[in-house]
Amino acid sequence: MTFKTNLILGLLIVVGLNACVTAPSNDHTLKQSGNLSFDYGQDVEDLIAGMTIEEKVGQMTQINIDVISKGEIFNLEEPHELDSIKLDSAINYYYVGSVLNVGGHTYTRQHWSEIITAIQEKAIHEGNGIPIIYGIDAIHGVNYTVGATLFPQEIGQAATWNPLLVEQGAAITAYECRASGIPWNFSPVLDLARTPLWSRFFETYGEDVYLAKTMSAACISGYQGNDASDPEKVAACMKHFLGYSMPLSGKDRTPAWIPERQIREYFLPTFQTAIDHGALTVMINSGEINGIPVHADPDILTTLLREELGFKGLVVTDWEDIIKLHRDHKVAKDMDDAVKISVMAGIDMSMTPNDYSFNRSLIKLVKQGEVPESRLDESCRRILWVKKQLGLLQNPVPDFADYDLFGSESHSSAALNTVLESMTLLKNEGNLLPLDSTANILVCGPAAHSLNVLNGAWTHTWQGLDETYNTQGASTIYEAVVEYSTGSVDYALGADLEEVHDI
User: Fold this and answer.
1) What pLDDT digit, counting tens, does each position of 453-475 carry?
2) Catalytic: 318?
3) Which of 318, 321, 336, 348 is catalytic?
4) What are the tens digits of pLDDT across the range 341-352?
5) Where does 50-141 have alpha helices with state H?
6) How far, in Å, are 44, 51, 157, 185, 369 from residue 58 at the CA level?
């Protein structure tokens, strides 16, 4: 792989934007995904041999749960309920291979049981008989299931400098994720935090390569263990490959300009470590590096990821990123061209996710001879192999009653221990801490009286902003101080002491 070549091609793309560049798609037809020597198993080959083009494309299609739920996209009916007609279309017409997400907020384990059971029973008894793989963003614990154990965000876990705690937390998350019927976790974020302007800094293991590598290995081990088919383990998903955390502007999903030396020294080691530890899946950088959208770059998705790093698992896009090749990046003249570019670059599964545009385009491209059917076979091998590794081909519906430790005291204690070790006391001047419980105390700042700020994003809702779904019984800093203290406790929203009031 050479990033110099990427830079030159990126400049050519920029020059030709007004003409709706199609050159990348022609170039990408010459390169198909490598790592073809890996044996994915005869059982996988037998499944592929019996599949139609439509069924193969279906395996490569991942839809949002909103697509099969009652109501409109992002405006579902409450309480949430699957729509039997929409589900029937997904399974029996589009043969979807994967479903992801939650309809806006946390669900109970009972509701997850209903969702997963209904989808899997439909998939294995109808359609092509192949179970779907359900994915969720369980970023710091299973944040989309009511009563699950929440841990510090990744940056807090890294602050413990204790990989054993990270592995334990990942194992508990895997357990509670499977207890919700979900075998695929879109975690961990392996991007190295090198620019403080970037809004997702908190989701990383920090800026240090060695620390992040160490925590990456611990997390993968906790999620997958020695056997991902274990009903207490999940498939990890490395994200976001590659260079996602170094946008030039600091804004999320915007262009990055990174020399190859920095790519290899700072941003590659965490992913290499995770691959060496058997990570089963990877999610791709939504932005572009040196002028080329990563979802369109075979040098990164095939030459680097497959041939150099030896990754043999499933490559999934991020949210709408194939659509963005046409809509935002302007390197594809239309959706068909965007699908062709990304698939030939090395994408296995499209998180489209709110329609079937990827599905329809890819079927058309194959039937027109623009994408060889053998390219579909490559992706289906990887997808089916991951499903096999998770035990889904044998046991698609888990025993939901077999998870007595979900949300247990032992899990909470592990989370508390991680929180305690993540804290950093810079200087305890005059042994001020711990506070005397009889002292009069002033608590200041909006973060001191907000669970949302304490929890951060990916907590009960996507950005963790809706207080309606906050953990019952959890205390803010201010509330905890009040509970601990026998003296008077005042709270000030800001620095103006005239605002101090006794609550």
Assistant:
1) 999 999 999 999 998 999 988 99
2) yes
3) 318
4) 999 999 999 999
5) 53-59, 84-92, 109-125
6) 16, 10, 37, 21, 18
